[in-house]
């Protein structure tokens, strides 16, 4: 039988109770041949990153001390859930980790320019420690759990902080994990971390444990990839903005990818690709309410129409290439693009390179930068073929000024931009109309069946 990847995020491993919940969930799934992937305990990655900043400022001692409350948290969990022998062994692992981190902080304080690889080395302790602790806790519950160093499986380029996996990851992961699975062991790995060809520790970017789970799932041809988090599945909107957001039972890969890319933090945007490549279903579940159904993400049935661009765009070909090369050079991802014959509007989220980007863009034409804008995306397969949908959306928020409208090439995404201070109001109004009224529900049903 094919294995099931079970990934538990930071809030699912934040304290003793959370570890207990995870152990119960894995125990109940043992016949599904679980491979467990865990994040660092909640808040630890932020603290590790902040400690590197402290070290860069020359305060190595404060940097290491700032981590002690988190190390103590690990100790508390170990003492509550492990027999004293295993707890002592784990506390030794923690002490070694602290000493190694201390050395790295000292090096950074003296040579701050060396920090990118050392930062990844430090941050990776978060996932290594939670995974080792989880393996011990699962063993305590009678499971044949084995800690596996994810850096031996996930092989990446050396783009520290957001490394990309290399094809080698497939055979490396199989070689590490298949023998364990064949002898009925439960492998436990840290998400988010990998290593370069030279064996230097790398990380996959914030929220990257979901991506690790998907990569490992693809390598093992998993039956399913389960993302266990603190909400019941993918919701109709960000629950921190829309109080009545509710679980979407089934999503297509494309819908999920658009949602993740445009801000549904519940799923790392890159998670979907390995799943699509191998047609592995992704399930998003709540580790605090494991019996709630959550969201199942599967391949959609309707074929995507081929997009043919207008011949008039041919003249602009070289121009667009030059334009995107500028963004490429400054490693800045472009989110939404709209073009007319004489102008191109683009949106970017990461503005850290803006100061260098603009002079380069000015070589191509006049540049205007508008900030404090928010992108709102309405996502659903129903958008493909529903006439009048844009008119309905925009009439609902007719008093709000809208710029940059784009219907994604995937046709499951209607995206537009509003002033930042009108965004929450717009999202709540659209959510009310589409998800919280009977009229909205009917509308939605029509769209889904259309
Ligand atoms: P984890 O630590 O398990 O990886 P994250 O914090 O990365 O969890 O992601 C879960 C959070 O994503 C939720 O607590 C929720 O606040 C947020 N979120 C934003 N948009 C959505 C959405 N559309 N559906 C579900 N959760 C969302
Ligand atoms: N611990 C990492 C982060 O906080 C990775 C993850 O949790 O997915 O970004
Ligand atoms: Mg996450």
What does this structure look like?
The strands form four sheets. Strands 3-5-2-1-8-10-11-9 form an eight-stranded mixed beta sheet, sandwiched between helices. Residues 301-314 and 443-450 have low confidence and may be disordered. With 450 residues, it is an alpha/beta fold. It contains 15 helices and 16 strands. Bound molecules: adenosine-5'-diphosphate, aspartic acid and magnesium ion (MG).
Describe the protein's topology.
Layout: E1 4-8, H1 16-28, E2 34-38, H2 44-56, H3 60-65, H4 68-81, H5 84-110, H6 115-140, E3 145-148, E4 155-156, H7 169-182, E5 186-190, E6 193-196, E7 201-203, H8 209-219, E8 224-229, E9 250-252, H9 253-261, H10 272-278, E10 282-286, E11 295-298, H11 317-329, E12 334-339, E13 344-348, H12 354-362, E14 373-379, H13 389-396, E15 403-407, E16 413-419, H14 423-435, H15 438-449
Parallel strand pairs: 1-2, 1-8, 2-5, 3-5, 4-6, 8-10, 9-11
Antiparallel strand pairs: 6-7, 10-11, 12-13, 14-16, 15-16
Helix pairs in contact: 2-5, 2-6, 4-5, 4-6, 5-6, 7-8, 8-10, 9-10, 14-15
Magnesium ion (MG) binds near residues 9 and 210.
